[in-house]
Design goal:
Elements (H helix, E strand, L loop, with lengths): L2 E6 L11 H11 L3 E6 L6 E2 L4 E2 L5 H14 L3 H16 L3 E5 L1 H14 L3 E4 L3 H4 L1 H17 L2 E4 L2 H10 L6 E3 L21 E5 L8 H14 L4 E5 L5 H10 L6 E5 L3 H10 L2 E4 L14 H8 L3 E5 L4 H4 L7 E3 L4 H13 L6 H12 L2 H21 L2
């Protein structure tokens, strides 16, 4: 069995529970390969499966590494690459799969040096944020040269990377997917009337404040309408103030983060799901949100902006309702239409069928596994 290393730069040296797509990728790879997962930033990586440090973080070993950097005038990244090289050789790594562009940058040198195939999966901010593109543009160019393939989760992201970096022939469009097992009991779930759900981080690119303001117009037409916001983030206090300002305490609920099963339970009972994604001032954009796929699979009427990969999976008027970014009046109108039955009643069924047929994690992950196989076979055949 071939050996694959998955690399993820992360401050907390762990994979966030909200990054269900990364957990899904790793689980799928384990079905066909021996997988080792390195989580953490250079110099602080952790071997996830073994629960131990990649390099000791005890005081004396860290002090020695710092002294060696001073003596040899090397950086933490260079030192990390040297350690990665030894690790790759010892573990006989056949392919490196990097989650997020910055993770790929961190391993590109060792992959180049050892001729190890490198696949890099972009997800969102790593392809869009202006400050990151400015900081990593040269590194991205070198990484794209080294990489066997670059995966973009939306057509919009694919185009963005082609314009910013080039190498169009290496960039592959493939979104993440949802766990299709969530639909098993969806036929028996009863939908609660006049309910709208939002799931996501409370950040500028999700624009939850704009959603709350648009919902005020919904309440003026449908006083019993309820908006449930699941998630947390930097804009929570702003959301709370807006709810008070508009006197929506009886209509808008901020639940904070909830477990995945509880989120699915709420989606199973809600009538509509809203994703008010917008392009943030720093350029940040969505990839293709898995939460939308789950809402579709659970027969929500999805109302979302014409943004990022959302337009790749929703056909306006058939499998959901779309509107331009920052058009809050139209957002209000779409929510009222969804709750009052003024849109096509076939939308929930159409959305569910499309999600099951095209967006399941099993389909998406098998495609990624095939890319890994092809990269390894190409590498080994050239030896």
């Amino acid at each position: 069995m071939y050996n694959v290393v998955v690399v993820l730069n992360a401050d907390g040296r762990s994979i966030s529970k909200s990054e269900t797509f990364i957990h899904s990728h790793i689980d799928s790879l384990r079905n066909e390969f021996n997988v080792t997962t390195l989580v953490g930033n250079p110099g602080q990586r952790k071997i996830l499966e073994e629960g131990k440090d990649f390099q000791s973080l005890r005081f004396i070993p860290r002090a020695i590494r710092k002294l060696l950097r001073l003596l040899h005038r090397t950086t933490i990244r260079q030192q990390d690459n040297a350690a990665l090289g030894k690790f790759f050789k010892k573990r006989n790594i056949h392919c490196c799969f990097a989650e997020y562009g910055m993770s790929g940058v961190g391993v590109m040198e060792v992959c180049r040096r050892l001729n190890t195939p490198l696949l890099v999966h972009f997800h969102g901010y790593d392809a869009y944020r202006n400050d990151l593109l400015k900081k990593y543009r040269r590194d991205y160019y070198e990484m794209f040269q080294v990489a066997e393939g670059i995966i973009a989760v939306s057509k919009d992201m694919k185009g963005k990377l082609e314009r910013e970096v080039g190498f169009a022939e290496k960039i592959i469009h493939s979104s993440c997917g949802f766990n299709p097992s969530i639909v098993n009991n969806s036929e028996t779930l009863s939908k609660q009337p006049n309910t709208v759900t939002f799931v996501g981080r409370l950040t500028p690119k999700k624009d939850p404040v704009g959603l709350i303001r648009a919902f005020a117009a919904v309440v003026s037409k449908i006083p019993e309408a309820q908006l449930t916001i699941i998630g947390d983030g930097e804009l929570r206090s702003h959301c709370e103030k807006t709810i008070l300002e508009l006197d929506l305490q009886e209509n808008v609920t901020l639940l904070g983060w909830k477990g995945h099963d509880e989120v699915l339970g709420i989606l199973g009972q809600s009538t509509a799901f809203v994703m008010n994604s917008v392009t943030a001032k720093n350029g940040d954009k969505e990839g293709t949100p898995v939460a939308i796929m789950e809402a579709m699979a659970l027969k929500n009427i999805v109302i979302a902006t014409q943004h990022g990969g959302i337009v790749d999976i929703i056909e306006d008027g058939r499998s959901g309702l779309l509107y331009p970014e920052f058009d809050y009046e139209l957002l209000s109108h779409k929510m009222i239409a969804a709750l009052s039955g003024a849109c096509d009643p076939a939308i929930p069924d159409n959305a569910r069928q499309y999600a099951i047929s095209n967006l399941s994690a099993s389909l998406k992950n098998q495609f990624l596994n095939t890319l890994v196989w092809q990269s390894i076979e190409k590498s080994t055949s050239s030896l």
